Structure formats: C-alpha cells, structure tokens
Amino acid sequence: MDYISTRGLSPAVDSAQAVLSGLAPDGGLYMPEAIPAFDWQRCLTLSAQQMSAEILKALLPDIPDMDTLVKNAYTGKFETEDLTPTVPVGDFQVLELFRGPTSAFKDVALSMLPQLLTAAKKEKGIAEEIRILTATSGDTGKAALVGFRDVPGVSICVFYPYGGVSQVQRAQMVTQEGSNVHVCAVEGNFDDAQTGVKNIFAACQGKRLPFLLSSANSINIGRLAPQIMYYFRSYADLLARKTIALGDKVDFSVPTGNFGDILAGYLAKRLGLPVGKLICASNANNVLTDFLTTGVYDRRRPLLKTTSPSMDILVSSNLERLLYLLSGDTALVAGLMKDLNEQGFYKVPDSLLAAIQAEFAAGYCDDARAENYIGKVYRDHGYLMDPHTACGWAVAERQKGENPMVVLSTASPYKFSTAVLTAIGGDTSGSEYDRMERLRALTGVPIPANLAALREKPERHTGVIPKEKMLEFVLGR
Ligand SMILES: *Cc1c(COP(=O)(O)O)cnc(C)c1O
C-alpha cells in the first residue's frame, strides 16, 4: 500500500518504509493514500491482541507476520489481557489506557513500535543498527526505554530537561536497565532538549554513521496505528455489557497534546467504527480549542506550565494528518504548515473548518477545574483520576449529548500524586514516595507495581550535560 506525504512533495513509499523513515523528506507526515476496506464488525468479536493485529495488517500490509509481532509486544506486559479495560464511572465510561509497564498510555504504542521497526528493517534488508533519539517531558522517555530495551539491532538515547520532570518520572528513567539504553539530563527546558534532538538529526543528515537515526515520537505512523485498537476494544466492551447495541454511536473525550491519541480515534471511525463526536480536551494551553472553534491555529502565545504536563504543547504535530484527511489537498496542507512556520499561525478555509467541526468538538479545562473534578469524581464515585484524565472528564461534562460518553484515561493517578492528593484534601509533605504511600492509605487504590518498585532501584544514568554536548553524547555511545 502506498503511503504519501501530507505535503505532497516526497515520493510515495510502502508501509514498511514509512515506519522506518518516520518523517517524510519534505517535512510532511506519512499517510496511507486511501483508507483500506475493513471488516469492523468482525474486528469487534476479537480479543485485544487479535484486534490490534487485524488493524495493523490493514494499515501496514508490507510488514509481515503481524500476529507474532503483536504477541511479542503485549503478552504478559500489561495488567490485564484485554490491555485497555473500560470501566463505568457515574454516567460516563472510563477507558483506562495506563495499565501497561510504565503506567502511561504511551505504553500501548511504544510496546508495539519496536516490533514494527525491527520487522520493517528486516523487510528492507537493512543491516545497520538503528539508534532512536527521543527528547521527553516525562512519559514518552520511560515508555520508549522499556519498549526498546534489549531489542536486537536497536539502541536508544533519551534526553530529559534537568529539573523539568517529576521525581517519579526521573526515577523511572534513571533506573532503567538494559544493554542498549542511554539516558541523560540536559541543562535547559524541554524545548532545549527537543531542539537539541532536531539539531542532531540535521547535523547527521547525509553523513556516514555506523547507525541510522530514527525517532519514537508520534509523527511515526508505526506509533500512531497501534493506538486505534483501544477504540474498538472499548466499543466491544460496551456491546458486551449491553450499554449499547451494534451500530449505536459512542462519543469519546480525549485529553490531547500532540493530537495523536484523538487522531487514532478518527482513524477508527474511518475504518467503520460507529464513533459519534470526538471531543478534543485541552488544559490551559488551549490552542486546539481556539482552532476547532475558529479555524485559526495560532501558536504565538506563552506555553503555560500546568498540572497536566503531557498536554503542555503549542504545536500539535498530528493535526497536519487531519488537515490532509479532510481536505485531500497536499498543496493546501503544505501552505498552511509554511504559514505556521514562518508567521506562527494559519487559517483554514471555511469548508475545511466545517468538515472538521462535523467530526470534532473541543473544550479546555484549567488546573483549578481539573482539581475540582478529581475531588468530585472521587467523592461521588470513589474513582481516582489523574489531572490529564480530569481535563477529559471536565470537557466531557460540557459536551455530553445523547450518545454514551467514553473518557480516555491517559495516566495512573500515582504519577501525579501531589496534584491528586491536593484535590482530595490530603497532606502533600515529604518525598514523592511518601505521597504515593499516603494516597494509597487514603484511597485504597493499589500503587502500580512498576512505580512501587522504583524506590529500591539503583540509579544508573545520572549524567547531566549542556545542550551543546548532546551530539557528542549520541556519537559516543
Ligand atoms: C502524551 C499524553 C497525552 C497526549 O496525547 P497526544 O497523543 O499527544 O495527544 C495525554 N495524557 C498523557 C498522560 C500523556 O502522556
């Protein structure tokens, strides 16, 4: 199947090459030229792993042996065999995406990406090592380290901002075991680390290196495609519980940053799943709320630090894929991305805005409201949410209509103990581990085993470097 760039200026490639390349040479993102025909009703009768395999076979047909890859990615790695359970809470349903090895929703995709990448590499007859470079504001780094740990033929370097991630997130990364993993703090903020990684890609372009560089972030179709599964899983769970009948529409509220998670929901819909509205929930960094209501995307504003840091983002890369899907016009997309780059904003034509608004709703929730909802949902229903999920819940409250509502839960509350304890009236003194323990004592919700184990693990990666030394770090491993 041909994959083309959303900007239309790169040659078409097959799906294995799209996974290997990540970004297209013209700076665009790879998308299938047409969405394939798909037996969505049969898919709903399958197990989570089988669902994943069928969806990935349809979208990445040039990667062979998908059943085995899926089995290797997921078997025994998640808390439950259905991977992503949906639980009723009050009038809503909560789709729990954080039951994986690092308690972040990114585990669903980053468990699968190493399998897809190594299979694509084999398919293309590439012998060199692949070196994954990732800058992280917290969750992606650890999920990628666990996913790529000891995968033959691949190594990974993760950079995080020194002092810029939570104590638990830092502990998760610096204690990582494995012979092919490298972690380093960078003096500066997340943008400095991310710019540093981009500069390394630019500096290495066209150079002969002993390895190929690649990226683990959601610009790669191999990271996006595995996320479609849980929309099917959730719908099938509601069917099994008779909350809905086959064909009924379901709305999904998605805590959004880079627009990858919610775009996977839209792809599920295009594959046939009866999805009603997709609700894009932001925090106080509400650039997407403004875009989805006015058609103007304007990144010229300060980036605010919130209690939901994984959504603190001003440029949502995967929105480009939606613009392409709904316009089919690569020249238009290329022009809009040029405007964004050169002027800091763009405006879509009215017809495209109307097409987007027919599929998506949007809203945002600041820290104070998120905290209110964490407290309220805990008091009313005994269910503990993290601040990202609380944004999804708050926006869902405003957008609810006739259809059943699924709120996607993207992180364990134990990754954000301070904010959660504050919301339910607990004492926040002491270390992060004291707070986790206090939250458990207050609520009885078990601490995920991977987080509880961190306290005892030795720190293995304690380096801190200035951003000018990042290239040296990568070349020297
Ligand atoms: C990454 C992340 C998000 C945002 O997902 P996108 O696919 O980037 O929109 C939301 N919540 C948490 C906890 C995350 O780690």
Total helical segments: 21
Helix content: 40-55%
The computed structural class is alpha/beta
Instruction: Describe the sheet with the most strands.
Output: 6 strands, mixed
Unreliable residue runs: none
Shape assignment:
globular
CATH architecture classification name of one domain: 3-Layer(aba) Sandwich
Instruction: Classify the beta-strand content into a percent band.
Output: 15-25%
Oligomer: single chain
The small-molecule ligands in this entry are: pyridoxal-5'-phosphate
Q: Within the largest sheet, what's the order of strands?
A: 3-4-14-9-10-13
Mean of the pLDDT scores? 95
Which fold name fills CATH's third level, the topology of one domain? Rossmann fold
* CATH class identity of one domain: Alpha Beta
Number of strands: 15
* Rg result: 21 Å
What is the first-to-last residue Cα distance? 36 Å
Provide structural commentary.
This protein is of the alpha/beta class and 477 residues long. Helices cover 44% and strands 16% of the residues. The protein contains 21 helices and 15 strands. The strands form 4 sheets. Strands 3-4-14-9-10-13 form a 6-stranded mixed β-sheet, sandwiched between helices. Strands 8-5-6-7-15 form a 5-stranded parallel β-sheet, sandwiched between helices. Strands 1-2 form a two-stranded antiparallel ribbon. Helix 6 links the parallel strand 5 (129-135) and strand 6 (154-161). It is globular. It starts with a strand and ends with a helix. The model has no long low-confidence stretch (mean pLDDT 95). Pyridoxal-5'-phosphate is lined by residues 104-106, 139, 218, 255-261, 310-311, 388, 410-411.
